[in-house]
Design goal:
The protein has two domains: 272 residues, Queuine tRNA-ribosyltransferase-like (TIM Barrel); 94 residues, no CATH class. An eight-stranded parallel β-barrel has the order 4-5-6-10-11-12-13-14, surrounded by four helices. It is an alpha/beta fold. It is globular and about 60 Å long. It starts with a strand and ends in an 8-residue tail after the last helix. It is built from 15 helices and 16 strands.
Length: 381
């Protein structure tokens, strides 16, 4: 299922296989389609042209709308959204954090007030696994609680202990569901999630416990939720060595190009983040010379593509001036072109990262890439 084929320090180049698609080349950035679509008018058909390998959708949101039972009747998420590659579904656990004002946590699970209409929804480990089985994703994430980075130690310890108990329930339920005759994807994989806020000893202990459960992969969750980048990197330095080397490591919800480069150096294989799509919808686009805001007046007569040499659909055909005009006129095409460019930028960066590790020059690549992506755009052109 997962094989590391080359190391450079802790950075690793690998291959991953699941029920759909061919081999996934790692490190990999998963393109986020929370509600079975990439925000910004990007379809599953577009994703192939952008070199996307894995699409990520959200259990909680699809459970509410259109309903996981509907998706099941449509033949599962792959058929529903016309995507034949791998899909990872987040468990709904992050909503335990993001909807903190609308939920109540108990040992059995979490009761939410729907953000759509206020109706009460219960989700626990078994419900999350059932929903993800109905969706038929390739990778299901275990149901967990993501405690705040500023939560006190006692709360975090109790939360992590409960998340560990929930993980066993997730594993038991998935084994049952994968054996049913009417299950859409009988080869669905389960990734566990390490939590512990910024308490390294709690995280290390939790990593040791969940590593004994022989899961298909392991994620580091609960980062990029308020802590500093330095704190995040420190946690990765401390925790990743305690996760199984023969299984993929996934850093959830991270991040900027710089975050990804630092994560790869610390042994992370999978990433996801809404930044490329969210920023693109607001006219902020990534280049190898820093991020630029196409709303700025300086681009009103700029006939260059967003980035010279870029082969994304936007850069192959359109100028900065035209895309800026579309954005200012509130034409949806402007937003779509920016999102396409950003996803292509991220996916291409991952290809570069893999090649650098293969050629044993990742350290040099990282230094040069960081200098570009974190620099001031005006100083580079």
């Amino acid at each position: 299922m997962f094989k590391v084929i080359k190391y450079e320090g802790k950075a690793r180049r690998g291959k991953f296989k699941c029920a759909h698609g061919g081999e996934v080349q790692t490190p990999v950035f998963m393109n986020v389609g929370t509600q079975a679509a990439i925000k910004g008018g990007v379809s599953a058909l577009d994703l192939r042209d952008l070199s996307c390998q894995i699409e990520l959708s959200n259990t909680y949101h699809l459970h509410l709308r259109p309903g996981d039972d509907v998706v099941r009747q449509m033949g599962g998420l792959h058929k529903f959204m016309h995507w034949d590659g791998p899909i990872l579904t987040d468990s709904g656990g992050f909503q335990v954090f993001s909807l903190a004002g609308l939920r109540k946590i108990k040992e059995e699970g979490v009761t939410f007030a729907s953000h759509l209409d206020g109706r009460r929804i219960f989700m626990g480990p078994e419900e999350s696994m059932r929903i993800q089985s109905n969706l038929g994703s390739d990778i299901a994430m275990a149901f967990d609680e993501c405690p705040s980075s500023v939560a006190d130690r006692r709360y975090v310890q109790n939360s992590v202990d409960r998340t560990a108990r929930w993980l066993q329930r997730c594993k038991d339920k998935m084994q049952e569901l994968n054996q049913r005759e009417d299950t859409i994807n009988k080869h669905q994989l389960l990734f566990g999630i390490n939590q512990g806020a910024i308490y390294e000893d709690i995280r290390i202990d939790h990593a040791k416990r969940i590593s004994e459960m022989d899961l298909d992969g392991y994620a580091v969750g609960g980062l990029a939720v308020g802590e500093t980048h330095e704190e995040m990197y420190h946690i990765l330095d401390e925790v990743v060595p305690y996760l199984p080397k023969e299984k993929p490591t996934y850093l959830m919800g991270v991040g900027t190009p710089a975050n990804i480069l630092e994560g790869v150096e610390r042994g992370v294989d999978f990433f996801d983040c809404v930044y490329p799509t969210r920023n693109g919808r607001h006219g902020h686009v990534y280049t190898n010379h820093g991020k630029i805001n196409l709303f700025n007046e300086q681009f009103s007569k700029d006939m260059r593509p967003i980035e010279e040499g870029c082969q994304c659909p936007a850069c192959r055909s359109y100028s900065r001036a035209y895309i800026r005009h579309l954005l200012k006129a509130k034409e949806m095409l402007g937003m779509r072109l920016c999102v396409l460019h950003n996803l292509y930028f991220y996916n291409t960066m991952m290809t570069e990262i893999r090649e650098a590790i293969e050629n044993h020059c990742y350290a040099e690549y990282k230094e040069k890439k960081l200098e570009g992506v974190t620099g001031n755009y005006k100083d580079k052109v």
